[in-house]
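Issue 218. Parser rejects a valid record. Input:
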Amino acid sequence: MQRKPPELSALAGQRALQAMWRDHSLLAALRVFHAELGDCFRIKAPGFTPVMLVGPEAARFVLVTSRNDLRWRNASDPVTRVLQHGILVEDGALHDQLRQTMTPALHKRVLGSYVAAMIRGVDTITADWHGHATRDMLIEMRRIALLIIFEALFNHDFTPDIDTIWPSLLRTLSFISPGLWMLWRDMPRPGYAKHLQRMDAYLYRMIEQYRERHGLSPTASSESVSDLLGMLIAAGLSDSAIRDQLLTMLIAGHDTSTASLTWTLYLLGAHPAAMSRARAEVDAVIGHGAPQLEHAAQLTYLDQVIKESLRLYPPIHLSSRTAAQDLDFKGMLIPAGTRVLFSIYLTQRDPHYWTAPDRFDPDRFSPELSANRPAYTYLPFGGGPRNCIGFAFAELELKLVLARLLQRFDMAVKQPDIRVHMGATLEPRPGLKCQATQRHASVTVNVVPGEP
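Output the parser choked on:
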């Protein structure tokens, strides 16, 4: 006989509130829920009663075995209202068609063509990093990630427009971040419409300019272009459908990279021995020249650092679905229509699978210790057939951007007390103040974008 997912006791609820107050984060409360109730439990709040799943069995259930019975699209969510028909919020055949169209621009075999844009993004933003000025790395990493995604995937120089579009982009991210709308679906949300319209206008203008610049028509061959925007146009998608994919990649792509880069700089700054080891590896592998594609595979310790950062602070820490029919998870009934949440954050800090799960330890990702790790315990890019479409691009971007920063600057964290904020991604609040001091002259990369 099927059971209902357990709910929190009054005593555990009190402990959860205390933990949330202490850490200023709902994640602390969720850890109490998990410890009290196990890998499947129901959260009860006014107007919001999802079932939360945790752990590798739950990951396989959500991502593989029951994926066709769990819907991504939820018309009442702000993320769907913003992305409309973006690949992230589509199901079934439409999602598969979009993925087939977009994958060639993100495949490993074309990543080498994006390396120059990645290094150029770093060099452009850091061009005025003189002296010992303290900067907010959350802001700086966002600026770098924006330049990279616009140039590499959209073949567009965003540098002249970054300050103009910046406020609208941040408001769009705020619109889709967790908030009271989760409890009150129809709550008024004034102040967002003009920013969403400004983002739309910018993207539509960019699509039009791309068509004019490259002479592309809806019947153009996809073989004549190599970037994502060109492939979407050549595939015959309408401008509104192209806009949806661009905004999806822009939000899901740049914001996740922003968070990952910032958290990794924070962890390196908080652990001087790891910083020294990573910097020494960068110096030995790359020297004073610009990082190249072949260097990425040689930066093995930096790779471990990045993976440990993604384990501790996965940018997309929670996945959300809706049960399309009654489901059974380990003998517990999940009724049709139920919101189903899977916690990547709790899974990647589960003490059943991770020794000292809250400790920063890059060596846990050494080949020796990684060999026998259970499947679906490490999921920063999701898993199964709908894993992150841009994970290979993101992995290369994180490694090359960090390598370039470590190559050129000594980074000292000046704001050690930060908290975890559940925004559109998992990010540090109130930011990350670092002092960046130039180390030595490096080979200068032209900061004016060229044609990919």
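Fixed in the parser; the record now loads. The CA atoms of residues 147 and 159 lie 7 Å apart.
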